Structures are given as structure tokens and as C-alpha cells.
Amino acid sequence: MGILKKSIQAYLIAVSVFIILTFIVALLIRYTSFKEEWSFTGIIVSMAAASLFLGFMEGKIVGKKGLMTGLLSSVIFVLIILVSIGCTFADFFNPEHFNLTYAIPVVAGTAGSIMGTNSSK
After folding, report:
1. pLDDT in tens, 46-98
2. ∠ at Cα 18 (7, 11), nearest 5°?
3. CA separation for the pair 55, 107 (Å, rounded)
4. Angle value at C-alpha 105, between 45 and 5, nearest 5 degrees
5. Could you tell me what percent of the chain has a pLDDT over 90?
6. Mean pLDDT value across residues 35-55
7. What is the pLDDT, as a whole number, of residue 69?
8. Are residues 54 and 111 in contact, defined by beta-carbon separation less than 8 angstroms?
9. Angle at the Cα of 104 (from 78 to 107), degrees rounded to 5?
10. Distance between CA 117 and CA 59 in Å, rounded?
11. From the centroid of its chain, how far is CA 12?
């Protein structure tokens, strides 16, 4: 039960990091000379950073099989973000919104989990 509680805390922290980084990207676009076309790239970068952090925490929590732990936790994290965005800003969930670009946060989370697993030894 302790692993589940720590995993839920890791997801909540990762979502909080994602929200904070997204607000920072929004402020940069609003108050600096960043172009609005870069907003999707900013979202992907903030999602990758939060996913890397989540993967690191999950790797430390589980302590073994870093590649699979990070891959699974990152996929779940990206799906949580996409479903919540889809439910918030759209009338229905559209599978066409899945893009190959979302593999970047998954790879970042996998790398973070490998680092977290290796740091726990």
C-alpha cells in the first residue's frame, strides 16, 4: 500500500509541475516576444520536464525495472493530461489529437525512471 500512496503523490507532484511550467510558458508568450506558434512546443517541453520528474520519482519508488516503470508511468501521465485537456476544451474526445510528438515526454519519463532506479542503488 505504501508504493501506491507514493505513486499517487508522485503523479500529483508531476501534474503540479506541469501546471506551473505551463503557466510560465503562457506568461512568456503573453509578455515577451515569443511567438504564439511556439505554444505547442512549450507545452511539450513542460510535459517532458514533468514526465522526467515523474519517471525519476517512480524509479526511486519501485527501485527495479526502470525502463518498464518509466514507460508505463509516462504513458499514463500523458494520457491523463490529454484526456483532461480533451474533456475540458472539447465537446468530445478525438483520437486524432494523438500525435507522434507526445512520444517526447514518454521518452523523457523513461529516461528519468532509469536514472531514478540507478540512483536508488
Report:
1. 999 999 999 999 888 887 777 888 889 999 999 888 888 777 776 555 666 66
2. 10
3. 10
4. 115
5. 36
6. 90
7. 83
8. no
9. 85
10. 4
11. 11
- Output the average pLDDT for the chain: 85
At which residue does the C-alpha cell 505554444 appear? Answer: 39
Q: Residue 11: which H helix or E strand, with range?
A: helix 2-31
pLDDT band at 107 (very low <50, low <70, confident <90, very high): very high
Angle between helices 39-62 and 66-89 (to 10 degrees): 140
Question: What is the grid cell recorded at 25?
Answer: 510558458
* Cell of residue 102, nine digits: 507526445
At residue 120, the pLDDT reads 59
User: Which amino acid would we find at residue 66?
Assistant: G
How far apart are the C-alpha atoms of 52 and 29, rounded to whole Å? Answer: 23
Closest CA to 14 of 111, 119, 109: 109
Sign of the torsion formed by the C-alpha atoms of 77, 24, 12 and 6:
positive
